[in-house]
Amino acid sequence: MEKLERIPRIPLAITPTPIEAVPRFSKVLGGPEIYIKRDDNTGLAFGGNKARKLEYLMADAKVKGADVILTEGGLQSNHARMTAAAARKLGMKAVLVLKGKEIKEYQGNLLLDRILDAEIIVVDPDGSLTRREAMLKKAEELKARGMKPYVIPTGGSTGLGALGYVRCAKEIIEQSKVMGVEFDWVVHPIGSGGTQAGLIAGKKLFGGNFKVYGIAADNEDFEPEIKKIGEEIGKLLDLELTISPEEIFLNYDYFGPTYGVPSEAAIEAMKLLARTEGIIVGPVYTGKALAGLIDLIHKGKFKENEKILFVHTGGAPAIFGMDLIDRF
Which NCBIfam families does this entry report, sorted A to Z (predicted)? Predict the structure, then answer.
């Protein structure tokens, strides 16, 4: 699509990411044929899905003359880590506004944030300012000092950022043809809505036949955000593009016990994939989504003759910021 190619984009991700069959994992589950889209291999600061979104967001920041990038997330935010890396790659400063209690040690993504020399602001969830309010306040302070801040919301989930997953959907369709495999479902973790909105929009625009199924890492209602981002994508591409409720498949059964805390099912899913295929997933997003996929297969949600593509969105560095040894 010509309009998509004209929107400014800075290559930050190593793409196309490979699609890998996981026959031993599939055999253990005794259900559909499963493949994994390795978006953990996008390359930017240990990789992950945010690299695709940042290609468009950082290009926009450059066009607008920004010299400092601000974003927000949890203490072990994968998005924050990758945003800091993208900022450094383009010669900008990075400010990360992270929700949590005080930092007691720098491990996992926090250690990588330090290596990247990002400014870290910790916002107490019980404090007077929300994370977003603290980020916008910091942006105003930077403006007053003569700097040019560019603010990226949680997960980079805007219509512009989601264009990265419009391109990913096109990539999946092209790889599917080369492989001679037609996927029935594309299953992925969902934490802010941009990945699902981009995949649904992309499959509509480029003729994909698969359905997109998001397994939530939080209990937030993502459907309104997915619809909103879909409309933003349409405006950017000068198209009448809407995402209907019938196209949105969301599951909220697997985020427990709460956001950011690995569930026992996620730990078991991580072990199973690692010990059958040598692939490591993170404990917060991909681990919980993988646990959901396993359980849904056991419950017969996906038919035995179907082919499923699971999008590995990254997040493994967070493992090193959690005390998980006794759980493995």
Answer: ACC_deam_rel
